């Protein structure tokens, strides 16, 4: 990559935290509301997605569905 060796260190905040959320599946999907459109801006996002798709990304004004291979 064409970045300085110190780039990542220089852009990171002086302190960091980790936030982990896990929500069990709802037994009655008709009761779920989902999330409003939002943007996650952390350095790293780890997403564990089950068999229901729904992750989308917008790039240059176009919305794309994201398919993740389950591991």
Describe the 3D structure:
With 71 residues, this protein is largely without helices or strands. The chain has one domain (17-71). Helix content is 7%, strand content 11%. It contains 1 helix and 2 strands; from the N terminus they run αββ. The protein is extended. Keywords: Iron, Metal-binding. InterPro entries: IPNS-like_FE2OG_OXY, IPNS-like_sf, Plant_2OG-oxidoreductases. One of its GO terms (molecular function) is metal ion binding. Residues 19-62 form the Isopenicillin N synthase-like Fe(2+) 2OG dioxygenase domain.
What's a concise summary of this model?
This protein has 71 residues and is mostly loops.
In terms of topology, how is this protein built?
Elements: H1 7-11, E1 56-59, E2 62-65
Antiparallel strand pairs: 1-2
Keywords: Iron, Metal-binding
Protein name: Isopenicillin N synthase-like Fe(2+) 2OG dioxygenase domain-containing protein
GO molecular function, one term: metal ion binding
Give the mean pLDDT: 76
Order of helices and strands: HEE
Report the sheet with the most strands, covering strand number, pairing sense and barrel closure.
2 strands, antiparallel
What level of helicity do the residues show? under 10%
Low-confidence stretches: none
Question: What descriptors fit this protein?
Answer:
71 residues, little secondary structure, 11% strand, extended, metal-binding, IPNS-like_sf
